[in-house]
Amino acid sequence: PNFTQSAISVSHFQGNYTDINRSSGTSTLAVRGFDTENNTYVINAVNVTFWITQDGTNLFATNTSTNSTGHASYVFDPSCSFDARRQTWYAGINDPCYVSTNASSLNVSVFANLKSSILVPNGERFANGSAISVRVNVTDDCDVGVNSSMVNITVNQSTLGYFCAPIQSNLTQGIYNCSWDSSGRNPGYYNVSAYL
Using CA atoms, how far apart are residues 145 and 114, in angstroms rounded to an integer? Predict the structure, then answer.
């Protein structure tokens, strides 16, 4: 007898438009294969590959297989090799029993926790009326400098808060600078905070 590969379709089952925190989250990406010639779901142990972009373009691939209901899944737990941004994923069946077929592209968004550290000042004393340089470093959970036009730096004393502006940034390092004029401000201790 002459055996031919069956035509199939691969459809999304789970994980489209999912949000994942890179520090603490996972998402199950799942598809289901359907044999369009025999009108049944694909058999158990069919080869399935999942592809996920790492930087919006370059692909990471991992292999798995279907279960007895034709489903295949991958638990996506993004590491620092995945940029914090919307990524594209798809899956495909490549098996001797079936015509190689890919599902349509879907989306998953990877988010990162951000942290800020005050570099300057660092406990120094200044004369009232001084222009005080403030420097802040904003990084993500992988210690990569964050570029954002939404950084606010405030200088606080008790319930009083003052914006430090204008903010100048070195967008390749996540470094933000401003100069705060202390003229006419109450003497005492101040805290510096950075917000995104």
Answer: 10
